[in-house]
Specification:
Elements (H helix, E strand, L loop, with lengths): L2 E6 L2 H36 L5 H34 L4 E6 L3 E6 L2 E6 L5 E4 L3 E6 L3 E6 L5 H13 L3 E4 L1
Helix pairs in contact: 1-2
Length: 165
C-alpha cells in the first residue's frame, strides 16, 4: 500500500497530545505517590508534628509539584513552538510498506516501521513513539479505517505495541 495524506494541526490537538504524553509518563503510580505524600504532609500538620520529617515531606511535595508543572510547560512550549513554525499548520504523510515519510514547513523525515516502538491511539490523534526521539503527533480525523488498520498492522508486524486509550 502506498498512501499519501495531508493532516492539519490545531493548537487543541497539540495541547491534547502533550497532556496525554505528560500524564502517561508520570503514570498512575506517580500520581498515587504524590497524593500519598500530600496526605502524609496534611496528617503531620493536623497532629501537630513540626519535626524534620514534616519539612522533608513538604519539601518533597513542593519539589515534585514544581518539577511536574515545569516539565509539562517545557513539553508544551516546545511543541507549540514547532506548531507556530508551520506556515499553514499542515504536514504531508506518505505510508508505504517500508515506512512513513513526513514533510512539513519545518523539515522532513523518513521512518522505518521497525523504528516505531509504539502507538498510543486516541479518538482524534495518535502518538507514534520512537526510541530516544520522543513522539510524533498524527491527527487521524482525515485518515480512513483502511489506512488506520494498515498503520497498526505494520507497527505490530515490526514488534511495536498499539495501546488503545
Amino acid at each position: 500500500m502506498n498512501r499519501e495524506i495531508i493532516v492539519r494541526y490545531t493548537p487543541e490537538i497539540i495541547k491534547f497530545a502533550v497532556w496525554q504524553f505528560w500524564r502517561r509518563n508520570i503514570g498512575v503510580g506517580g500520581f498515587v505517590v504524590f497524593g500519598f505524600m500530600i496526605a502524609l504532609a496534611l496528617y503531620l500538620l493536623v497532629i501537630g508534628d513540626r519535626s524534620w520529617l514534616l519539612g522533608v515531606v513538604v519539601t518533597t511535595v513542593l519539589f515534585c509539584f514544581f518539577l511536574g508543572v515545569a516539565s509539562y510547560r517545557i513539553y508544551l512550549s516546545r511543541s507549540m513552538e514547532k506548531f507556530k513554525r508551520l506556515d499553514d499548520a499542515v504536514a504531508r504523510f506518505k505510508f508505504t510498506g517500508n515506512g512513513i515519510w513526513v514533510e512539513s514547513d519545518i523539515g522532513n523525515a523518513e521512518i522505518a516501521w521497525a523504528f516505531v516502538e509504539k502507538i498510543w491511539v486516541f479518538p482524534n490523534v495518535w502518538l507514534l513513539f520512537y526510541p530516544k526521539q520522543g513522539y510524533s503527533t498524527l491527527p487521524v480525523a482525515d485518515i480512513d479505517d483502511e489506512l488506520q488498520q494498515f498503520i497498526i498492522e505494520k507497527v505490530r508486524e515490526n514488534g511495536g505495541d498499539v495501546i488503545r486509550q
